[in-house]
Amino acid sequence: MSTIVLLTVTGLGLGALYFLVASGLSLIYGLMGVLNFAHGSFLTLGAFAGWEFARRAGADNWWTFLGSLLVGAVVGALFAAFTEFVLIRKLYERHIEQVLVTVGLSLASVALFDGIWGTDTIHISGPEWFRETTGILGAQISNDRFVAIIAAVLVLLGLVFFLKRTRYGMIIRAGVESRSMVTALGIDVRKAFTLVFAIGGAAAGLGGVLASHYFQYVSPLLGGSLLIFAFIVTVIGGLGSLTGAAIASVVVALLQQFANFYLNGTGDFVVVVALALVLLFRPSGLLGRKS
């Protein structure tokens, strides 16, 4: 029983990280039709920015951790907004060019991070509470898993509230349905779309800081490794569906954890099989809209 509890809670923590990355991907594609292959770079830069803040603060306490979360989210948002403004804005409805530009930015950013921080992994530590465990039904679970889960839930609730209850959220949804109509009303949809990129980048930057504590290291390849599974989550959940991304994040992470433990480390293979089955029998994803 304790093993099942441990795998479940650990899987939920991993799923939380997948959702923080996939939520930005799903939001950007669902509202703007952009497949952003540079999204992992937002995560990696956020993770490095959070680590730099904590290193310079010189103390592993809760205030430093919360500050690193804020710095990671802000840096991720600024980098994402800059990417949209400089590279993506002129490429809407030009999907091939979007893919080429974002893949190129992803490769270039990894090289840039290598040059700044080096190619070796940097091991990190957080508040002392992170290095402790909490017992649940006989299972000893690392406390950082709970922080990741709580952060993912708050991000999901915040995104849903923003899109459905705020003025800019309504402008964004209206701009997706009819950009020309919203523009005719004197509203600059471009600013709203930049804001969408910034929100996605903030979620990725936040996820980067949490991922660095989850795996206890940060490296230039951190974002790329998580981005692969975030894309799988986005496709399984349904492109453009935040709720679908949340459900798929949990399903994918739990499949991965249980298969790795009970099926001799075949978690990644099982996830790919699940992706193939979804593409064969439900191409729109769990909660995606059919074309």
TrEMBL record:
Membrane-topology annotation of the record: Multi-pass membrane protein
Domain of life of the organism encoding this protein: Bacteria
Chief place of localization: membrane
Transmembrane spans: 6-27, 34-51, 63-87, 99-117, 146-163, 192-215, 227-254, 261-281
Entries under Pfam families matching the protein: BPD_transp_2
Subcellular location: Cell membrane
Record's keyword terms, sorted: Amino-acid transport, Cell membrane, Membrane, Transmembrane, Transmembrane helix, Transport
CDD domains, per the entry: TM_PBP1_LivH_like (cd06582)
Similarity-based family: Belongs to the binding-protein-dependent transport system permease family. LivHM subfamily.
Protein name stated in the entry: Branched-chain amino acid ABC transporter permease
Organism encoding this protein: Arthrobacter sulfonylureivorans
